[in-house]
Design brief:
2 strands, single chain, two-stranded antiparallel sheet, 3% strand, mainly alpha
Length: 123
């Protein structure tokens, strides 16, 4: 099994999540490019927050499902899959969902030491 997945596989998985395509179908170019664009936006935001450790086009297999769900949350309105609720409730629901999924992603981050000594002055 592959250790990384591509952006197109991510987009396909998001569209399968919403039943926009069947398992044996390929996504349309416009749908997949929209999802990939939103993934790239999310990736850039996460990079600013030091939450990424992978290359943008190589999604590690261990985070593929949580990342699929995060991207799905960001594109659900565009595909008409958002829950019918007042905007304020929807925003809170979206924030809570993203918070849970970010927590799942952080569990897989393997922060390695730079092997550099840290010096401190005692006063």
């Amino acid at each position: 099994m592959a250790t990384t997945r591509t952006e197109l596989e991510l987009a396909t998985n998001v569209l399968l999540h919403f039943n926009i395509i069947a398992a044996e179908e390929s996504p349309s170019a416009s749908d997949s490019m929209y999802v990939i664009g939103r993934y790239r936006d999310l990736f850039n935001e996460m990079t600013l927050n030091d939450e990424t450790y992978w290359n943008i086009g190589q999604v590690p297999a261990e985070i593929f499902e949580p990342l699929t769900q995060m991207v799905a949350l960001t594109v659900e309105k565009a595909f008409g899959k958002a829950a019918a609720m007042p905007p304020a409730d929807y925003a809170r629901s979206l924030d809570e969902g993203m918070r849970i999924l970010r927590r799942r992603l952080r569990r897989t981050v393997n922060v390695r030491s730079a092997e550099m000594p840290t010096y401190a002055d005692d006063f």
